[in-house]
From TrEMBL:
GO molecular function: protein-disulfide reductase activity
Superkingdom of origin: Bacteria
Protein name: Thioredoxin family protein
InterPro entries referenced in this protein's UniProt entry, alphabetically: Thioredoxin-like_sf, Thioredoxin_domain
Pfam families in alphabetical order: Thioredoxin
UniProt GO cellular component terms: cytoplasm
Domain Thioredoxin: 7-86
Length: 106
């Protein structure tokens, strides 16, 4: 089970972190998640991924101002860099992360 504290610590201690907010009732979330995680894994070696189930972890969703699912938050070097909700493509997320990520790890 995640806590706000453990997630904040993960964000501070890792160069690149993705928070993936979803719920068991969200079909889009389940279709997107494996594709997105595989693409992140293939393209970016230094990513830590945290999945948040908002049906049991509402306070975490509220803390990060997440009110729709699926939502992806990407933190680079401890700062929120990207926020995508509902309608997103895997390619779009990868494209938006690539350049700043590569600059950061070079």
């Amino acid at each position: 089970m995640n806590t706000i504290e453990t997630i904040e610590q993960t964000i501070q201690e890792n160069l690149a972190v993705m928070l993936y907010f979803s719920a068991p009732t969200c079909n889009v979330c389940h279709a997107l998640k494996p594709k997105l995680l595989e693409a992140i894994d293939r393209n970016f070696k230094e990513f830590t991924i945290v999945t948040v189930d908002i049906s049991v972890e509402q306070e975490i969703a509220a803390h990060f101002s997440v009110f729709a699912i699926p939502t992806v938050l990407v933190f680079l070097d401890g700062r929120e860099f990207l926020r995508k909700s509902r309608h997103m493509s895997v390619d779009e997320v990868i494209r938006e992360i690539r350049r700043p990520y590569e600059i950061m790890i070079s």
